[in-house]
């Protein structure tokens, strides 16, 4: 009964129960006491009655949380104040190694944050992710909490275990006001994490154009070696961000992972508006990645027919192939493997010649072998009609012969 009365703020009932020797520290199925319930619901007067009646303020409940954790997480400043005055340890951690300050920062409870800081809470404490309260406030978009933490000496450029600063967290979420607060306090715009990403990368990847613009105005570097912000925006299809980065001197043909250009990643991910913009600029349609694949080969592999057409119209070679020693595949190989018949029809219409149809990859397989091995019999028929050799042998020869027998039987019935 005391649990329910405490949660619902029935001070008189709680006092009656305490006076009549109710077990004030009894726990429910979640290991929570009446004090936990009252604290979580902000029942200040009930909390006072319970503590004065002998409730243990350090009792640990579900998730290893104390009454102070519960009050802080829910922004009940008066309860926090009372518990701290009565000796609650504000640096005790719950099961995620979070302190009361972490929890208040996550929820944006500015009053509780300020009170905890004033009473000596450790602003540098880290949880199991190596996040501080500043990371939590930044990631969840609480600018006033960020301000309070920064005013009490938190290092704005501290890096957490996943290698993200508070500025990168704010940029990733598009939290404009938080980001401004951080930069005003000296956050390094071009700080690079171990994953080679800056705040500009985070904002670009997530399409936050206002954040991108602000970072560029603040001196963000568009030419970080490796994957650039332009790669990230191209990969996720944020055309407006791509245009903004290019206007600020981002290199169309910069190389990222596996030596891929922005045109490679936009084509692979099917972002035709980005592809069109890049082609209207100076993007190199013939550029190859570490395997020798062009943007056309990438688009063909993913069945992005409209992009395939656009690339060919802009000069992409339909017969280009990967580097010998790697996969050595053509766009026709990739499309046949994936069963992308519309791409194949277009490639055949636009100049895949007889010799190209017979091109083999590093294992000696033609596009026909891929189609047969995967059971794409409509593609098998189409390739044979365009001159593919029914007697060709490759790595898939065993299955090829079995499937081919089935195909020929069907063909001549």
TrEMBL record:
InterPro entries: Ankyrin_rpt (IPR002110), Ankyrin_rpt-contain_sf (IPR036770). ANK repeats lie at residues 1-29, 30-62, 63-95, 96-128, 129-161, 195-227, 225-257, 258-290, 291-323, 327-359, 363-395. Keywords: ANK repeat, Repeat. It holds the Pfam family Ank. SMART domains: ANK. The keyword Electron transport does not apply. It comes from the Eukaryota. This is Ankyrin repeat, PH and SEC7 domain-containing protein secG-like protein. It comes from Mycena albidolilacea.
């Amino acid at each position: 009964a005391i649990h329910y009365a405490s949660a619902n703020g029935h001070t008189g009932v709680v006092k009656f129960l305490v006076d009549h020797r109710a077990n004030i520290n009894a726990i429910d199925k979640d290991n929570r006491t009446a004090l936990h319930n009252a604290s979580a619901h902000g029942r200040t007067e009930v909390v006072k009655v319970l503590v004065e009646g002998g409730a243990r303020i350090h009792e640990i409940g579900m998730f290893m949380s104390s009454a102070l954790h519960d009050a802080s997480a829910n922004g009940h400043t008066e309860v926090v104040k009372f518990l701290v005055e009565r000796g609650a340890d504000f640096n005790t951690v719950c099961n995620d190694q979070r302190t009361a300050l972490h929890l208040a920062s996550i929820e944006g409870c500015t009053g509780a944050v300020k009170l905890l800081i004033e009473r000596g809470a450790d602003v540098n404490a880290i949880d199991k992710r190596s996040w501080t309260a500043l990371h939590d406030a930044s990631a969840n978009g609480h600018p006033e909490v960020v301000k309070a933490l920064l005013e009490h000496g938190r290092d704005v450029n501290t890096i957490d275990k996943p290698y993200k600063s508070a500025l990168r967290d704010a940029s990733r979420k598009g939290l404009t006001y938080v980001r401004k607060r951080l930069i005003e306090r000296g956050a390094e715009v071009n700080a690079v994490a171990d994953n080679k990403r800056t705040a500009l990368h985070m904002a670009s990847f997530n399409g936050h154009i206002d954040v991108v613009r602000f970072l560029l105005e603040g001196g963000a570097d568009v030419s970080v070696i490796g994957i650039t912000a332009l790669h990230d925006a191209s990969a996720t299809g944020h055309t407006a961000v791509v245009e903004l980065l290019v206007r600020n001197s981002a290199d169309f043909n910069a190389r990222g992972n596996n030596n891929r250009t922005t045109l490679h990643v936009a084509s692979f991910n099917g972002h035709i508006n980005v592809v069109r913009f890049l082609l209207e600029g100076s993007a190199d349609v013939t550029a190859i990645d570490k395997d020798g694949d062009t943007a056309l080969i990438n688009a063909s592999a993913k069945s992005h027919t409209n992009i395939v057409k656009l690339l060919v119209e802009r000069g992409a070679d339909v017969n280009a192939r990967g580097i010998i020693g790697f996969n050595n595949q053509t766009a026709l190989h990739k499309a046949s493997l994936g069963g992308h018949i519309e791409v194949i029809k277009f490639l055949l219409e636009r100049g895949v010649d007889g010799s190209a149809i017979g091109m083999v990859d590093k294992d000696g397989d033609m596009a026909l072998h891929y189609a047969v091995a995967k059971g794409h019999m409509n593609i098998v028929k189409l390739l044979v009609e365009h001159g593919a050799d029914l007697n060709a042998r490759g790595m898939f020869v065993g299955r090829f012969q079995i499937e081919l027998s089935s195909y020929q039987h069907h063909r001549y019935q």
